[in-house]
Every structure is written in structure tokens, then in C-alpha cells.
Design goal:
single chain; 4-stranded antiparallel sheet
């Protein structure tokens, strides 16, 4: 009942206040482990307490965090499993979207439109920034007997890999994107040769977005345009999200790689 969901609990009683299920009856491993971002802002002309979420199923959702009502939902990558949402905010799924014994190709992939990488929100632009992957996945179900000394994944053969493309669609791509929660529209994309599951993104008050590639490049992007402004090579993959901190009024941005902490600041 609560798989692929966000659940709000009363901290005093532990009772459930509300929940919202992003993917009903999921057979694609689109667990909603992606961060929930809580924002107080003007939404379509009225102050609202919002929950922003770029789900693994390829859909960006805006919820009222007081009652869990779905305010808006829009795919940020191709998502062939959903055709819309009903008045209660429940996704309307497309035919043949679920995994089957023969295997079916569905967008997004098993890795999802986004994943564990931390997103970031900028009050300056009002946009969300997060890593993305655009591409299909092949999903199947069937008997999966347990075999000693072998990894048990609990699914039939043929599921989960990423086909090169499907239905004449654009080839897979990945990188960092900016999205306007007010409209649900992608503002820009910065493509990377290869994404990594670990590093997230960091938006700063200086109008920058910091990100990392799997090859070990630490990158600063313009928050409004997505233009690359600076990069530094760590010499190894970067398995951490960047952080920002201040010492005696000077701002630093830090990230770790290969058991080394790299910290950067502007010249005095």
C-alpha cells in the first residue's frame, strides 16, 4: 500500500496524516528513495508549503505538504508508463506498462529518470536542480529460484537492462537539469558523458550549481543558463555530493574523491 510513496506522520502520535503513492503497483523497481525537498514559496499566486520531488519513475511532482494533495505532475524525461493523472492525483497508466514474462520496454530505465543523487533548490531562481537519465529499460517477471552463493535479485531473466533506444526515440542521455516547479518545464540541460549514482548537485546564492561527473570532473554551472563556467579534475571518481561552508566570512565549496577532501574558494 505504501510502496513508492511519501508518508507524513504526526510526530506527537506517530499516526499517519497522509500519504501519496508516486507509482501504483510498481514492477520496475522505481522505489521513491529520491530526496523530498520542502519549500515555502508562492505557488500560482498564493503562499504554499510545498514538497518537491523528482521521482525515479521520471515524473516531477509538487505536493501540498499540509495535506498531501498533488498540485502538479509532469514528466521531466520520457515516461511511457503514464498518460495523465485523475482528479484524486492517481497516475493513469498506459497499456502494457507493467513487466511481463516476455519482457517489455518502458521509459524510464531501471535506474530511473533520477536516483539517489541529492537535488538542490535555489530560492533565487525558484528552480530545482538534479541529475537525470533519459532512456528506456527492459522489464520482465517470472520465477526466480534462490541459488546458494549467488546474488538473489528476485526477478525473471531479461529485466532491467538499458536498450540503446526504443520506438525511434532519441538516444539515451544523462546529465544535470534545471526545472521550474511552477510550470513543470525543463529550463536547461547540461549533458555528461557518464552519470554516477553518488554525487548530487549544489545550488549556491552566488548563482552557481556545482555537479560532478563519473570521470572525476567537478563542475560549476551558471544557475540561469546551465553554461559551464569552471571545472577541476579530481583524478578519480567523485562519490560525494558537494557542500558549502563559511570560515571567517569566506565561502568554500568542498567535495571528496579517493579519500581526499578538496576545498575551493575564490582568491582573496
Amino acid at each position: 500500500m505504501f510502496n513508492c510513496s511519501v508518508v507524513a506522520l504526526d510526530p506527537d502520535t506517530g499516526k499517519r496524516k497522509w500519504h501519496y503513492q508516486f507509482t501504483p503497483n510498481d514492477t520496475h523497481d522505481w522505489d521513491s528513495t529520491e530526496d523530498m525537498v520542502l519549500v515555502d514559496r508562492v505557488w500560482h499566486g498564493s503562499p504554499r508549503k510545498l514538497l518537491l520531488h523528482a521521482d525515479r519513475n521520471g515524473v516531477f511532482c509538487v505536493l501540498d505538504r499540509n495535506d498531501g494533495k498533488l498540485l502538479a505532475a509532469s514528466p521531466y524525461v520520457r515516461a511511457t508508463w503514464v498518460s495523465g493523472w485523475d482528479k484524486q492525483g492517481i497516475p493513469i497508466t498506459t497499456p502494457n506498462w507493467r513487466a511481463n514474462p516476455e519482457g517489455t520496454t518502458v521509459y524510464p530505465s531501471l535506474g530511473g529518470g533520477s536516483n539517489f543523487q541529492a537535488p538542490s533548490y535555489s530560492p533565487q531562481t525558484g528552480w530545482m536542480y538534479f541529475t537525470y537519465y533519459h532512456g528506456p529499460g527492459r522489464y520482465s517477471i517470472g520465477p526466480a529460484p534462490f541459488e546458494p552463493d549467488k546474488q538473489y535479485q528476485g526477478r525473471g531473466s531479461g529485466g532491467g537492462f538499458r536498450p540503446a533506444s526504443a520506438d525511434g526515440a532519441a538516444p539515451p542521455s544523462q546529465g544535470v537539469m534545471a526545472l521550474d516547479p511552477e510550470t513543470g518545464k525543463v529550463q536547461w540541460k547540461f549533458e555528461l558523458a557518464e552519470n554516477a549514482l553518488q554525487p548530487g548537485v549544489l545550488a549556491t546564492a552566488g548563482g552557481l550549481v556545482f555537479a560532478a561527473s563519473n570521470e572525476g570532473n567537478f563542475i560549476a554551472l551558471d544557475a540561469k543558463s546551465g553554461k559551464a563556467l569552471w571545472r577541476s579534475g579530481a583524478g578519480a571518481s567523485i562519490p560525494s555530493s558537494p557542500i558549502s561552508y563559511s570560515v571567517q566570512g569566506k565561502q568554500y565549496v568542498a567535495v571528496s574523491s579517493a579519500n581526499v577532501l578538496y576545498s575551493f574558494a575564490l582568491p582573496d
